[in-house]
Amino acid sequence: MSPFELAEPDSLSQAIALLDGEGARALSGGTALMLMMKAGVLRPSRLVSLRKLSLQTIETGQGGALRVGAMSTLRDLERSAAVKTGWPVITRTLRTLSNVRVRNVATVGGALAHADPHMDLPPLLGALGARVTIVGPRGERSAPIESLYAGYLETTLQRGELITRLEVPALGKRRAAYLKCTTRSADDWPALGMAVVLDGEEARVWMSAATDKPTRLLAAEKILKGKLTDGKALRQAGEAAAEEVQIESDLHGSAAYKRQLIRVYLARTVHEARNAVH
Question: What is the reported pTM?
Fold first, then answer.
């Protein structure tokens, strides 16, 4: 591992200033960053620790939305009573996200900023209509979760920008499910992740792992509208979903294998969402 400077700012403004330079990287949980540094994939000259910043809250905000500080750990989110009551699909998803040791350390903001397409939360959060608050040298902005991702391990965050908060709209009467297919243990990186949120007779369908970033399946959604219990429509939606995106082969499966997974898991996830407990 290459030598680096470690900075521990006490305020958000200090952190942003320290990040506004070549070779500077934010350090939140560090579960992915440290592995990449040890492998020589990243060689930052400065790490800016965010641990002293007050970004650990999990609360219900205006309109019943869930507001999560970026430095909240995934374990904090998993164990939150408010999340379990209002967004049980998030709690269920987190139980098979990596393992409890990682969830104890990894943070919400760090997980979102990592931009690995195999992550479980981004497709689900996209389907739920989540947004992030981003702060940087030019001030604060809000953006839909999907706008964060430009490609494999690539975000749209600009130099000096940090995710400070995640906001998820109230689930209300919507029903949601996330399913993933792994080639080994249940908490392994998925070969496919599929998220479905049902609102009346309409569905929002997102997938990950088979593509280089979380992707919304618009053609499938169009077919499913008003036909969520129609077996033929589910099969047609699966076929449309398998054909409307560029599938990526990797160690978790070939493009042909993942295409078949999409056909199968779209119907399974719709069924799971229809039977989900509010």
Answer: 0.95
